[in-house]
Automatic annotation (TrEMBL):
<keyword id="KW-0456">Lyase</keyword>
<dbReference type="InterPro" id="IPR001303">
    <property type="entry name" value="Aldolase_II/adducin_N"/>
</dbReference>
<feature type="binding site">
    <location>
        <position position="97"/>
    </location>
    <ligand>
        <name>Zn(2+)</name>
    </ligand>
</feature>
<feature type="domain" description="Class II aldolase/adducin N-terminal">
    <location>
        <begin position="9"/>
        <end position="195"/>
    </location>
</feature>
<protein>
    <recommendedName>
        <fullName>Methylthioribulose-1-phosphate dehydratase</fullName>
        <ecNumber>4.2.1.109</ecNumber>
    </recommendedName>
</protein>
<dbReference type="GO" id="GO:0005737">
    <property type="term" value="C:cytoplasm"/>
</dbReference>
<dbReference type="GO" id="GO:0046570">
    <property type="term" value="F:methylthioribulose 1-phosphate dehydratase activity"/>
</dbReference>
<comment type="pathway">
    <text>Amino-acid biosynthesis; L-methionine biosynthesis via salvage pathway; L-methionine from S-methyl-5-thio-alpha-D-ribose 1-phosphate: step 2/6.</text>
</comment>
<keyword id="KW-0486">Methionine biosynthesis</keyword>
<dbReference type="InterPro" id="IPR017714">
    <property type="entry name" value="MethylthioRu-1-P_deHdtase_MtnB"/>
</dbReference>
<dbReference type="InterPro" id="IPR036409">
    <property type="entry name" value="Aldolase_II/adducin_N_sf"/>
</dbReference>
<comment type="subunit">
    <text>Homotetramer.</text>
</comment>
<comment type="similarity">
    <text>Belongs to the aldolase class II family. MtnB subfamily.</text>
</comment>
<dbReference type="GO" id="GO:0019509">
    <property type="term" value="P:L-methionine salvage from methylthioadenosine"/>
</dbReference>
<dbReference type="Pfam" id="PF00596">
    <property type="entry name" value="Aldolase_II"/>
</dbReference>
<keyword id="KW-0862">Zinc</keyword>
<comment type="function">
    <text>Catalyzes the dehydration of methylthioribulose-1-phosphate (MTRu-1-P) into 2,3-diketo-5-methylthiopentyl-1-phosphate (DK-MTP-1-P).</text>
</comment>
Amino acid sequence: MNTMQLRWNDLADVKRELAARDWFPGTSGNLSIKVDDASFLVTASGKDKRKETNEDFLLVDAQGEAIEGYAGKPSAETLLHVEVYGKTDAGCSLHVHTIDNNVISELYGDKGEVTFAGQEIIKALGLWEEYAQVTVPIISNYADIPKLAEEFGKYVSTDAGAVLIRNHGITVWGRDAFEAKKFLEAYEFLFSWHIKLLILKGR
Ligand SMILES: CSCCC(=O)C(=O)COP(=O)(O)O
Ligand SMILES: [Zn+2]
């Protein structure tokens, strides 16, 4: 198998696992994986990402322009994935809309960030010290995608990270598909945990 086929299979695996979690409501969400310095695979726009077809992904260049030979259109949010690969050595970027990430983004949107501390799952984000804390930036949901990508790009500097888009969703990236998915699951765990605690405490 060549690199392209290997990466295609990696992305298909992640897509299947996120679909099993029901993290692609209403055709939302987009995923990408780096193939080489000049190209990455990204999900086709507007499709039900729970479905598996031979046309789920398209190859695009480093600027997000479709490379000939693939059906459909690249994700409308491809420019955010361009920011990740252009600014870091990340290998995979995942974007999902969940109720939990939307609730957290609205609760803390005015603050521009949300911080979690004292939770064991933070170790999954690579932070192993006691009472480690993690902060996720929250940006406005600009309808203009180049503007959204520009704002998003201000928070993209390390090979692994996450940004919440207010009342929209989260984009998480990591060195490879395994790491990006691990981070995404850890962030969604934190969001769900935090919301449940707030409800139980009546705040
Ligand atoms: C139907 S949700 C609106 C678009 C969006 O935010 C999304 O994640 C999916 O867009 P795509 O073009 O990648 O299908
Ligand atoms: Zn989206």
